Amino acid sequence: MTKSHIFEYNQPIRLESGRKLERFHLEYTTLGHLNTSKNNVIWIFHAFTANSNPEDWWAGLVGDQKYFDPAHYFIICVNMPGSSYGSIGPLDINPITKTPYFHHFPLITTRDMIRCYEKLRVSLGIDKIYLGIGGSMGGQQLLEWAAEYPNLFAHIIPIATNAQHSPWGIAQNTSQRWAIEGDPTWKESTEISGLEGMKIARSMALLSYRSYQTYDYSQKGFAEETELLPVDKQKFRASSYQHYQGEKLAKRFNAYSYYALSQSMDAHDLGRGRGGTKVALGLIQSKALVIGISSDILFPPNEQKYIADHIHDAQYVVIDSLYGHDGFLLEFETIGYHIEEFLKNSSIQITKEKNVY
């Protein structure tokens, strides 16, 4: 059974920036049940604009009779702080000013995020996580937690992610924030401020999520409703697609969260305060399977190779895909196969028990 929960932490927490959150809340989803040995936990980390229910965005991997089956696992996914989907975010009330944070929402780094998740984990009485898995920004959080608590995860599977966000990725995010800043409404403090700019930002982001081959395969030609019109009235299918994706996101996300989370991604650096990324990756004690996507231009495979090279005895796989970065969401059959092989060959197995919580 899929359940949605709210975890509230009513004490101050110090952020990496030095600022404080007076309190915070996390929305999280659970699927399945915790067994009596509490050793069947799967912790899934979602990416940039996703939510805490992995059945919504990773249905090929999560669900009944899927690779992560709630009949066997207790699956947890937390909506990352700063998002639009229930956890503390820019539209929430600042307890100090009694008004929404809006533009003044503090930077919450990927390390800050996992420190919030740690409070939730402790409250749930979970001492060990059988498997942590996440792609893109989700993988960044996973690596942070695995480095911060080296013995917490028995297994980790970071996919299409990195140990430190790249100059290329930061440039992409900066340009997208610039599009939001260029929206005249961004100067206002309303819930819908910056939405037109965010539509453009999303359109720009898609070009890094996909690839030349993706568009060549799926967006050739003209929009069907215009292909018989005179040439000056025709609209390219690729153009319509970009507009559609921007409008689609604006119906479910806000510009403040988009802006804030892109800054969180830019600040990701596993090596900060730990002696560099090589040292930080070397702290991780989990059995690791690191997966890259061949056509990923945002988080190219060399970044995953670097991760695997510096986690002790890590396995490394590159999946051949034409879907670019989004291959981590779409190539679920191939990803599932590698997950099965990885876990099947692991010396750590889940206790088979009938009695569950």
Describe this entry's structure for a reader:
By secondary structure, this protein is α/β, with parallel strands linked by helices. It has two domains: 2-165 and 267-344, Alpha/Beta hydrolase fold, catalytic domain (Rossmann fold); 171-263, Rna Polymerase Sigma Factor, Chain: A (Orthogonal Bundle), CATH 1.10.1740. Helices cover 36% and strands 16% of the residues. The chain has twelve helices and ten strands. β5, α1 and β6 (74-78) form a beta-alpha-beta unit. The longest helix has 15 residues, at 167-181.
Low-confidence stretches: none
How much β-strand is present in the residues?
A: 15-25%
Task: Please give the CATH architecture of the largest domain.
Answer: 3-Layer(aba) Sandwich
| CATH class label of the largest domain | Alpha Beta
**How much is the average pLDDT?**
96
CATH topology of the largest domain: Rossmann fold
Annotation, overall tally of beta strands: 10
Q: Give the topology string: H per helix, E per strand.
A: EEEEEHEHEHEHHHHHHEHEHH
Strands of the biggest beta sheet: in what spatial order? Answer: 1-4-6-5-7-8-9-10
Subcellular location: Cytoplasm
InterPro entries: AB_hydrolase_1, AB_hydrolase_fold, HAT_MetX-like
Enzyme class: transferase
Catalytic activity: L-homoserine + acetyl-CoA = O-acetyl-L-homoserine + CoA
